[in-house]
Amino acid sequence: LALVSWIIRLIFCTTVVSLVLMPLVSPDLPASLIMVGVGPFLSVYVFAWFLIHRGAVRAAANAYLWLTFLLQLGVLIAAQDLQSQALLSFVNLVLSAGFMFGQRGALQMGLVCIVAFVSCQILHMLNMLPPSALSQSPGTTLVSIFCTLCGTCGLTYLGTRFTSDALERARTSQAESERSYAALERSAAADA
User: Fold this and answer.
1) Cβ-contact 61, 4 below 8 angstroms
2) Is the pTM of this model over 0.85?
3) 70, 95, 185, 190: least buried by Cβ within 10 Å?
4) Per-residue pLDDT for 192 more than 80?
5) What's the rounded Cα separation, in Å, for the pair 80 and 191?
6) Where residue 151 falls among pLDDT bands split at 50, 70, 90?
């Protein structure tokens, strides 16, 4: 529960930061266009957060992963300029899936992201997709990649922190078990 909650909060916060920075780097970009790009992602994270608070943690994790994936797939199809950001977002989805659902989750999400990316690239190369509907300025590209990389750093931090905490709890538990076992052996030896 805690890790899923932290991951969703982290990605929500990096998305909000991008929402705040976009007008600063591209003052000519209409706020409505920024909201069209960022709003659906924020809606997914709010929805996932709502599910967590209703006790549906697994559903929240799945909603976050798969709805974000679908939105990023839309980004890949609609805007070739955002390919780098979408790729980083796919990496974040693979990391998130691994932290939320283990090795199998990471592999499943990784395979889906690979197939989606390669398929989109082939379709674009064959001119089977419409030309990019959106284009980015260098400033908005910078903000998109910066915020997504911040998400990657945060996910890596959270994953290693939770893993380290779990290992420490396991070591503490093992040490307590060994002390209890030694005490039982001493007690049994004293009774004999």
Assistant:
1) yes
2) no
3) 190
4) no
5) 77
6) very high
